[in-house]
């Protein structure tokens, strides 16, 4: 695994992101996969109290840094291509309010925002499983393709607790973890869920 990207402080560590009782937890890996890709239409600016960037040069603003990071080619491999790309849709149960302040920028059109650090982790897990436990790798791929299983999984109390523990972790929420796909490069499947994840 790459060094330098796994400086996860707070309440969680890299081991807890992947393992339960000493074994790779397929549900945790699937949950991370589902949380790794978002529609750019849901991108919101930082809260007003955190907008110190208003005094910075335009190039240092979070959106400009995201655009700059996205110029790099982000790695793909044959294993992660076996997993469908999903975006979670819970808008039916949580319609956007008039107060929602989404980022409006034409450069975001027809793109997805992807957590590249989580994708590196998933690639590493799949590569390790291919060498050590092909049965579990196949289980991961099969479950990732089963939308009914994924919906049920997201309602499991242990998965909801896992998601709560992820909130606030740098690897999940830090702006520097994300990049944009090329326009029209990926067309995700929409996974409708009953609650906000």
Catalogue the unreliable spans. 1-11
| SSE order | HEEHEHEEHHHHHEE
Instruction: Tell me the structural class.
Output: alpha+beta
Number of DSSP helical runs: 8
What average pLDDT do the residues reach?
A: 77
Based on Cα principal axes, name the global outline.
globular
Helix content: 25-40%
Structure description:
There is one protein chain. The longest helix is centred in the middle third of the chain and has 17 residues, at 116-132. The chain has one domain (14-43, 56-95, 108-192). The strands form three sheets. The protein has a three-stranded antiparallel sheet. It is built from eight helices and seven strands; from the N terminus they run αββαβαββαααααββ. 37% of the residues lie in helices and 11% in strands. The radius of gyration is 17 Å and the shape is globular. The protein is of the alpha+beta class and 197 residues long. It starts with 13 loop residues before the first helix and ends in a 5-residue tail after the last strand.
Chain-wise SSE layout:
Blueprint: H1 14-18, E1 19-20, E2 23-24, H2 26-34, E3 37-39, H3 62-69, E4 86-89, E5 112-115, H4 116-132, H5 134-144, H6 147-154, H7 157-166, H8 170-173, E6 178-180, E7 189-192
Parallel strand pairs: 4-7
Antiparallel strand pairs: 1-2, 3-5, 5-6
Describe, in short, the structure shown.
It is built from 8 helices and 7 strands, in the order H-E-E-H-E-H-E-E-H-H-H-H-H-E-E. By secondary structure, the protein is of the alpha+beta class. The two termini are 27 Å apart.
